[in-house]
Amino acid sequence: xxxxxxxxxxxxxxxxxxxxxxxxxxxxxxxxxxxxxxxxxxxxxxxxxxxxxxxxxxxxxxxxxxxxxxxxxxxxxxxxxxxxxxxxxxxxxxxxxxxxxxxxxxxxxxxxxxxxxxxxxxxxxxxxxxxxxxxxxxxxxxxxxxxxxxxxxxxxxxxxxxxxxxxxxxxxxxxxxxxxxxxxxxxxxxxxxxxxxxxxxxxxxxxxxxxxxxxxxxxxxxxxxxxxxxxxxxxxxxxxxxxxxxxxxxxxxxxxxxxxxxxxxxxxxxxxxxxxxxxxxxxxxxxxxxxxxxxxxxxxxxxxxxxxxxxxxxxxxxxxxxxxxxxxxxxxxxxxxxxxxxxxxxxxxxxxxxxxxxxxxxxxxxxxxxxxxxxxxxxxxxxxxxxxxxxxxxxxxxxxxxxxxxxxxxxxxxxxxxxxxxxxxxxxxxxxxxxxxxxxxxxxxxxxxxxxxxxxxxxxxxxxxxxxxxxxxxxxxxxxxxxxxxxxxxxxxxxxxxxxxxxxxxxxxxxxxxxxxxxxxxxxxxx
Amino acid sequence: xxxxxxxxxxxxxxxxxxxxxxxxxxxxxxxxxxxxxxxxxxxxxxxxxxxxxxxxxxxxxxxxxxxxxxxxxxxxxxxxxxxxxxxxxxxxxxxxxxxxxxxxxxxxxxxxxxxxxxxxxxxxxxxxxxxxxxxxxxxxxxxxxxxxxxxxxxxxxxxxxxxxxxxxxxxxxxxxxxxxxxxxxxxxxxxxxxxxxxxxxxxxxxxxxxxxxxxxxxxxxxxxxxxxxxxxxxxxxxxxxxxxxxxxxxxxxxxxxxxxxxxxxxxxxxxxxxxxxxxxxxxxxxxxxxxxxxxxxxxxxxxxxxxxxxxxxxxxxxxxxxxxxxxxxxxxxxxxxxxxxxxxxxxxxxxxxxxxxxxxxxxxxxxxxxxxxxxxxxxxxxxxxxxxxxxxxxxxxxxxxxxxxxxxxxxxxxxxxxxxxxxxxxxxxxxxxxxxxxxxxxxxxxxxxxxxxxxxxxxxxxxxxxxxxxxxxxxxxxx
Lengths: 527, 479
Fold this sequence. Notes:
The complex is a heterodimer of chains A (527) and B (479). Chain A is 75% helix and 1% strand.
């Protein structure tokens, strides 16, 4: 199979799975089993295809398909692989989670089929968003992710979840409309300067001719793009939909929203950042990213320490981490970009873990209120262990992965001459750590209520968490070679550096790696 | 040699994973076993190092390109302190196996695998920190020890202990920000995280990095203005207080400061000025807060704060050129570790047998349990620096060094005198409590006390011996 066919197969698999899952509700008694089976096969195949595609990109360079409509380079490969891994693990977790919900009569079997259908459709739209090269299609795909996931957010059909879904649709659609303005501005700008206007819609062509684009228009376009897609990425002050949607959705969906969806919007912003930096120079887009980044961290950190609702706390932590990623790109330089990309991976794994854990707790206790959840360690020790380790990791405790990316962000900041900004960031991160540790102390430890039955929920709700924690520990202790290589190639795309070697810092500390040799040429080592 | 050193770091981590997986019964034995292996590794390291003629070495462990990320420093200081913290870890593991049991009158409770696993992680992290040759390595283990401290202070899962644990974690994490900055600055200036790069920097860069390190050190070593977490941390089980909050974790601060001074060669004097003024301020503050304390552990916590201030004072004096003060400071890290753990473990044994650690309720310890009476006496004398106990020798070196540099820097003289006055006054105060609790007729609580378990007796005896002899070990080792 050629690389192009891999891409088609990758996009079609979840789509076909979605259709099969939708239709299996007509199968009567076999519906439940059939939908689950289709779902399991679908996500497994998607995992294989997405990782396969990502490896193919790393080995043989970018893949372009369907006449340039799809383009997967090293940057997209990271996001693609993340959707594959997180989608598979949360999909696996869904099976265990939804089994419990159906058994307890929380949702009916037809709703289950709808759930699996939309789950896969949502995956399909996200894959479309990260593989798109056509900028209009990028926008369409991001809009489509909203539509796909709205039904997942409102799947319980309760008043609060419907309200959250409604808020989600309205804010994101309005927000992403700004993204459309930005997209159209860039497109019209390009059609007027390009010799062959038919290429103006492709990101690769735009990048090649970025120098010819009109700087004034690009400046406005980037503001629109940042506000538009920033809404979807959950940056302050456009984040208002996020805490509601994340907390009301079923936990596997919360995990997917936080760990995969936000990244898709972020990738679009990064794509535009690359073009705009080339047209305008990096100062302007960086300044915007720094401003939005630090604001998001600050506001989210303050919300995190006052939350009583566990899933809302985690949702605000997503805002905080997206802010940190934006901030890190805004700091610029190889180190900043590497830190940002590494943090994308790290945050996704950690947040998927924590939302899955909160799902287990929710099923056990029937509430997200941290005043009512007590003593998880006595009720479900393994969930508590995974959750506790995950929360500490998310707060930046070594030896887990987030510590490394956060440290890299700080190093990048000091390097690029922003010591005060870094001081503020570190203090805010301390607040976040306080919020997370307080969550652990209040919910996991202490005596457990008698009303809650002891025991774990089953293998399928634990195995994904174990795998996620193992990956986090691996990334923290010794970064696997392919990940280091992927980060390296992605960072070169963001910096628009071609094949020039990058500065040190790509590979994780503490273990001998032979990443890129001789960092002398790069600015990071020059000071 | 680097393999032994690496083993000393990694064995406890591996042991922690096993301990967590093993059941309740096996946990305490596994913990002792792995702590013993780590101690043997450290002893072997010390032996090989001494046999090879005590030549300092730095081994590269991890690097990216030209950037050193992690390495091991094996020199006289790291081996000495590393030996102390790992061996004390083993002793505390032995002590805990008896202390964390249903026979404990204050906290009848069998130790869980979680307790022993965190203890092992902590031992590994301490070994890693002491042997680390880079600021990133120090930061990594600095944060791990903070995490362990959080888990162990909050071990009993009471709201108060959890609040104290959070406070300790956050205050030390705020301190860690200094280390984040120092590491990033060092990288920005030298392109590497190796501490050896400090020597080649100009004074302004050095000053900034040193302030970062000093701030982190204040946080971890509970100095003004970041001292507030330590007295509350006494909510931890007593063996944990002995090990983390007297012998090892609080020494992380002074150790990284000493390590930076050793690596930097010439250090800007402003660091010495700020360091010594803050140290003396902490000394006086700590002494004043001795006075209202009735809880033996809180009294000891304030005593730890002042003893650490002595070490900061010594290290700051060394910046003005006193090699004697530097050696005294490092020897004091070593000596105080043994003396103060003895004190805490005596306190632990008292609460184990009597069910209270409130000083006014205790009388006539010597009559009821000679070992505890002697232990209390030795610990009090050693901590306050009375000859022939270990604290005297290191304090003497510090004061001698102080007078030596005061000849060229007259403004240091009042600080040295203040520190000496504190030393005398704290001796008087400990003598007061010693007189009230140890000799005489037994009070009700003491008369009703149970026996001290064998494992705890063994540890106390070892520590009594070390409180007498450790300063000779330190002196001969440092030369």
